[in-house]
Design brief:
heterodimer; A: mainly alpha; Cytochrome Bc1 Complex, Chain D, domain 2; two-stranded antiparallel sheet; 4 strands; elongated; B: 12 helices; 41% helix
Chain lengths: 247, 234
């Protein structure tokens, strides 16, 4: 093509620097292209470039953002001690402050002990009136148990969860989590189990902040099922549509 | 310089200058076509947003905690099913285990300090939408959209990085055709889950079969609602 132009138009051959310059010019667009390609396939700790701001950053606080106004840097303010959030939800943090239903919110009640003059903790047996133990609650309990309890206690509740296995691997000296299906746990009142989930026991931290009240009762219900399954008779007497349905 | 050159020669264009006109035409035409393409490519969300992996105050590894130890997303991000925001866990959640495991590790110093002082650990937000987008986590995870659709395989990330562009066009891709992503509710937090193809079915067909079924079952809104401005912007 170039040769044809040169010969037909009787032009001199283009000088070397002209051809070279043209080639360089044609390569230049590859540089930003290569940089962009690299940015697409690599990770970088650097802040994302943000060229068009629009209203992306507004002068408002979103959940868990930081604020220069308060000394602790939190834009979301922790509840004032002794108060509860205004609203309808009975599961709001600290809702038990207002609660009259000790069984549901605490799992225990305090009773005067005439002999010692102090207070006794009496755990409730059975489920509180506003908890309906049905299959929906049981399935919910299974799901929540597997999320919050199984990491340490194991899917079967025997204290052999993945976190405990890990602590053995790295020799952390972690006390083995309780076997939830042993006789001690089996004969504890429901309220005691509920309170343990809420406030923790010995090395176990309380899960009251992570698991709402209703779900804690669901876990207690599922735990009862787990315990019963440990000495279940060989002949399954579950309805046919349920037998083998729970993994 | 030869002797027969007249003084005026230096003011005459050399013959190669004839190439300049076509060269300029080529550059303008070519540049005019290539420049927008490059700018579009370089400034697209896929280039700008992908791969953001800020350094965190604690080198928390999702690959270890989720991938290896099998913690559920919700063990830490407890609010994701009930709130618009999938909360970063409080320090207490770390301490549930780390009060006893690796309880003297210098790598966890920021957590222990926070636990003592009550000051929050200054975690850096990775997935950050513009403030005019009202994204709601609970609306998505309770309607069959898995974490993995927007966050990628976090269970394989030692350092969390942004895996999806999170641009408006990318959001709309799914809002127009949610069946390409929907899954059964009990698989939402199972990041590795993929629909099992029936014999003779491709992976895409299997996803469409599952997605269309879930779309009906979970009463996903129609496209008019899903692509309305006020669905995401108020």
């Amino acid at each position: 093509m170039l040769k044809w132009i040169v010969e037909e138009l009787k032009l001199p051959a283009p000088p070397f620097w002209l051809i070279g310059g043209l080639l360089i010019l044609m390569c230049l667009p590859l540089v930003p292209l290569a940089l962009a390609m690299r940015a697409r396939v690599s990770t970088s700790p650097k802040t994302r470039p943000h060229y068009i701001l629009d209203m992306d950053k507004q002068t408002k606080f979103k959940a868990q953002s930081d604020s220069p106004i308060f000394a602790d840097g939190r834009a979301m303010r922790p509840p004032v001690p002794g108060t509860i959030a205004w609203g309808k939800k009975v599961d709001a943090p600290n809702a038990d402050l207002l609660a009259t239903d000790d069984h549901y919110f605490r799992g225990y009640r305090l009773e005067n002990n005439a002999t010692t003059g102090g207070m006794d903790t009496v755990y409730y047996t059975g489920f509180p009136g506003r908890i309906k133990v049905d299959q929906a609650l049981m399935l919910r309990g299974q799901q929540r148990f597997n999320i919050y309890c199984a990491p340490c206690h194991g899917l079967g509740g025997q204290g052999d969860g993945a976190i405990y296995q890990r602590s053995l691997d790295i020799q952390a000296g972690w006390v083995q989590p309780s076997n939830l299906t042993d006789d001690e746990r089996r004969f504890r009142p429901e309220g005691h189990l509920f309170n343990t989930i809420t406030n923790g026991i010995r090395n176990m931290a309380g899960y009251g902040a992570q698991v709402p009240v209703q779900d804690r009762w669901a876990i207690v219900a599922y735990l009862r099922a787990l315990q019963m399954s440990q000495d279940a008779p060989d002949t399954p007497d579950a309805p046919a549509e349920l037998a083998g349905g729970v993994e | 310089m030869s002797n027969d050159q007249t003084p005026s020669d230096k003011f005459i264009f050399p013959r190669w200058a004839n190439y300049l006109l076509p060269l300029i035409v080529v550059c303008v035409a070519g540049g005019g076509a290539v420049t927008p393409a490059i700018v579009g490519f370089a400034f697209s969300a896929n280039t700008l947003n992908l791969g953001y992996a800020p350094e965190q105050p604690v080198a928390y590894s999702h690959a270890l905690h989720v991938g290896e130890l099998g913690l559920d997303c919700r063990y830490c991000h407890t609010t994701v099913e009930d709130a618009s925001f999938a909360a970063i866990p409080p320090t207490q959640t770390c301490m549930n285990c780390h009060s006893g495991i690796r309880s003297d590790s210098p790598r966890l110093e920021a957590v222990f300090k926070s636990n003592e002082t009550g000051e929050p650990v200054p975690w850096v937000k990775v997935h950050d939408l513009p403030d005019f987008v009202y994204f709601n986590h609970s609306a998505h995870v309770n309607k069959g959209v898995s974490c993995v659709s927007c966050h990628g395989r976090v269970d394989k990330m030692t350092v969390v990085s942004q895996a999806k562009p999170l641009s408006m066009g990318w959001c709309l891709d799914c809002h127009r055709e949610p069946e390409k992503h929907l899954r059964p509710l009990d698989k939402v937090y199972d990041l590795a889950w993929k629909p099992t193809p029936e014999p003779g079915e491709t992976a895409e067909d299997a996803q469409l079969r599952v997605g269309l079924y879930q779309k009906q079952k979970l009463l996903i809104n129609d496209e008019a609602y899903m692509t309305s401005c006020s669905t995401c912007h108020r």
